[in-house]
Amino acid sequence: MGGISRRASELAKEENNNMQNSPIIEVRGISKTYEGGCEALRNLNMAFPRGELTTLLGPSGCGKTTLLKIIAGLLELTRGEVLIEGKKVDGPGPERAFVFQDFALMPWATVLRNVAFGLELRQVPKKERLEIARKYIDEVGLSGFETSYPHELSGGMRQRVGLARALAVDAEILLMDEPFASVDEQTRRKFQEDLLGLLETEKKTVVFVTHSIEEAIYLSDQVALMTPRPGSIMKIVNTKTERGRNPEEVRRDKKYLDCVEDLWQILKQYLV
Amino acid sequence: MTILGKKVPMMLSLVVWLAVWELVGRSRLLFLIPPFTEILKAATTVVTNAKFVDAVIISLKAFGMGMGIALVAGISLGVLMGRVKIVEQSLSMWLNVFVSAPLTAIVPALMVIFGIGQTTVVVTVLLFAIWVITLDTQAGVKNISPSLLEMARSFGASRFEVYTKVILWAALPEILCGLRLGLIRGVRGLVVGQLLIAIMGLGELFELYSRYFLMDRFWFLVILVFAFAFALAELVNYLERRIEFYARTR
Question: Among A21, A174, B116, B250, which residue's beta carbon has the most beta carbons within 10 A?
Fold first, then answer.
């Protein structure tokens, strides 16, 4: 009797472990050709570890945003499959939230309504969703701006609204498409630091697209380098930095700078 | 506005024109132009006439129905053309033709098809108004930022929700602009339709007054119709200004 229940609990633990170690996102044999013949991705395979921040890095046009949108379920793939938690998906889902490069805010709605929009689409009752929205507005540092409209906000503030909206739906996976590309350099650095801080409390898996090598290494646990069009994964580089270190120190650390230089050398070949 | 450095209210130009009208009228230069004060006196005669009230009701009914259909059909068609490429490609040329066509020319033909009556007036209003509403709606829908639509889908919006929560709102500035132009064209259609049919509504009154040279009453009617069109356009304009805050930043 005891033996059976012990075996059962061992099996359960083993399954749990497998869940923890198995990648939360897996893409297999992804190919994408656009109408008109442009082959964006060819036979791409990649696994994204749970709870970590992976960056897709590569030259312009290599297909990183295409891959991100395919994972998000916003683009149809020509061939291949996307597996989330081991299950095949072919459209958007509640476990994935997207942060857009151009913010994609509804200009006719207040910040509060924008942040609550994801919850609104899930039929969460009004009182509850506004409460949740307020919490995340506060978390991204926009307290006091709940009743403002997007046109009254700066670019950096608008992106924070986009981020709050993605956090509010409490998805396990955050997909971020060059989220800091449309803000100025100082804000961008602050955002990178804020994002890391946020991710310490919110345990999420993040897939991040950027073409800034520095940003990729600073933020990520691993960087997936992509080949130019048609894109596939060239190399995966581990870039884990100790959490909680002074950001200024990190940006001047020799290992960090060497890493930036190495990646730059690899990417440079494809510039011509 | 300022004249010769002195600030004067905008209403001054209106007062000046009315004064000129009064003077020209009094001088009896042209019997076609009576003094403005006589037109105002005629107002009371016309408005208290039972025939007038009937005419207004008939006209408003035709206008309301024609505009209502034009609005619903026009917006629907415009959204369809903005979203479905095949529809756009097959109908675009026709839309452009009809938007700029002198539709007055086909009103007699409409009379033959739909008979001499209210139906023809409704169809005339509808045809005058619908094309610009469709065109502007289509433009508004095509202008929507694709990432806004992707955003809605990414958070799980159903097709219906994408249309009602995003597309219609994002295209609203253009839709209202189309509505304003459509209303103006609709009034034109109303007058043209009724004038040519001339047996009912305001058209009948117009014909009656001009036939018997009751110019004071005729001009009063003209001013009334002009004011009606203007008031409708200004109403929509007010709505447009209320949403202007987001029209510019899309």
Answer: A174
Q: Give the residue among A50, A64, A52, A14 at the shortest CA–CA distance from A233.
A: A64
For A235, list phi and psi in degrees, rounded to 5. -160, 150
Q: Which residue type sits at A8?
A: A
Among B147, B152, B250, select the one facing A107 at the smallest CB separation: B250
Amino acid letter for position A3: G
Residue B105: phi, psi to the nearest 5? -65, -30
Asked whether the beta carbons of residue A74 and residue B245 sit closer than 8 angstroms, the reply is no
- Measured between alpha carbons, how far is A249 from A246 in angstroms, rounded to an integer? 5
Nearest-by-Cβ selection for A74 from B154, B165, B169: B154
Structural tokens at position A253: 């650390």
Dist CA B243 CA A129 (whole Å): 25
Q: Is the pLDDT of residue B160 over 80?
A: yes
Nearest Cα to B180, choosing from B223, B222, B243, B121?
Answer: B243
- Report whether the peptide linkage leading into residue A59 is cis, meaning its omega lies within 30 degrees of zero: no
Q: B154 and A107: CB-CB below 8 Å?
A: no
Best mutation target among A121, A148, A149, A175 (most B Cβ atoms within 10 Å) is A121
How far is the C-alpha of A43 from the C-alpha of A73, rounded, in Å? 18
Sign, CA dihedral B62-B68-B69-B70, equals positive
Contact at 8 Å (CB) between A206 and A167? no
| Burial class of residue B20 in the structure, from the number of CB atoms within 10 Å of its CB (0-12 exposed, 13-18 middle, 19+ buried) | exposed
Q: Note the ipTM here.
A: 0.86
Structure tokens at A37: 């013949």
Contact (CB<8Å) B246/A151: yes
Q: Is residue A38 classed as helix, strand or coil in its secondary structure? A: coil
Q: Which residues share a beta bridge with A98?
A: A175
Half-sphere exposure at residue A52, Cβ-oriented, CA atoms within 13 angstroms? 22
B chain contacts of residue A120, beta-carbon cutoff 8 Å: 165
Contact A69 B248 (CB under 8 A): no
For residue B78, give the nearest of B168, B162, B146 by alpha carbon.
Answer: B168
CB B98 within 8 A of CB B163: no
CA distance A35 to chain B (A): 14
Q: Which chain B residues are closer than 8 Å to A107 by Cβ?
A: 246, 249-250
List, for residues A15-44, the tens digit of each pLDDT value. Answer: 555 555 678 899 999 999 988 888 889 989
DSSP state of A91: S
- Strands A79-84 and A25-33, by their bridges, are antiparallel
Give A71-80 pLDDT, tens digit per residue: 999 999 899 9
